[in-house]
Amino acid sequence: MPYVSEMLGVAVLIFVAVATSRLALSWLNLRHLERAGQHVPAELAGEVDAERLRKINAYTTERARFGLLRSALSSALTAYLVFGGALGWYDAWVSQRGGGFVTSGVMFFAGLLLLGAVAEAPFQLYADFRIEQRHGFNRQSVSLWWSDWLKSTALSLVLSSALLAGALFLVRTAPNTWWIWVTVLISSVSLLLTFVSPYLIEPLFNKLEPLEVEGLSDRIRAMTEKAGVHVGRVLKLDASRRSSHSNAYFTGLGRVKRVVIFDTLLAQMSHAQVLAVLAHELGHWKKHHILVRMLVMQIVLIVGAYVAFVLAQSSALPGLVGLSTASFAARMLILMLAASALTFPLTPLMSAWSRRDEREADRFAVDLHGHPHDLADALAKLGTENLSNLHPHPLYAAFYYSHPPLVERIGALRALAL
Which side of the chain, N or C, has fewer Cβ within a 10 Å radius? Predict the structure, then answer.
């Protein structure tokens, strides 16, 4: 028991340290905005006036404060479930319901997924119908929101349960090599979803129709063919049913891609700016950013599966959360939580890698499209229309920003035009 208590103490200390660090970074970012957010950066002088700056600061501040509250409550709930005895009670309750190894494991994780979705719903409702609506972004009705929630929750439960059932079946039938076969299963399902999602899942939530804007489709195809990428279809997505936020992206694997453009983006930008945004997205494909990331994730997956295979057998593992025994499913959950906490210091490294890729895609877009100001102006419009934070704290941005801060990014693009 003293050994179990010591392990529990170390685990709690690590959990508190990570949770506190996350809250501290968010608070630091909020305080920085309150102190430094009263001036318009020179790079955005033509896009942002005093009224727009006031709106940006109001939106960013409200989201940041709500995010702090949300994160604090989430950490407290997680701490209670993991260290307060709820995990042991829940694990025993699932085991008492009967069923075999696979059935009990699926019940264990499906119950947690459903609990998470239900607990998250009030926060998302408030975010969408108070914060987003107050600042002019939310356009969806309550009935549409609940329809999306029910469909996404049901889809998540069905897909996750099927994947879990397959993984647990492999664990039971190949106890000494399951980490290999589970990796193959997860990779195969992920690849399959990449193919079928645009055709089976996306249409459940959005209407996709051919882009019928005179001249734009032809210009998109000409640009992509110049880059050596064949576009099968150019589609418009009805994002405006839910929000005025905008985006555009490519889907598909291999040489043939589909282009998806939010109708809100079309309403906000000129054709040249839309082409510049798509050229940036095309840069990620041509520079193999997505392929490299997929390969790295496969390596992480197989290493993680092997580590889980080794550690799941340890009799000391339940002691991390103050338990003397735990089912296989509970052991997997403990390992996932431990991995999340222990890899937190790697967050800035992953973010820096992503920002490097974004800069490279920006340079590719300039070379392909030929007009640095088009992409700079498009990003300025995206950032200001979406009320993005113009004054992130450098440490917060280093930790969490997958893209370079807007002002830095625009400045770098305009420097290329000199």
Answer: C
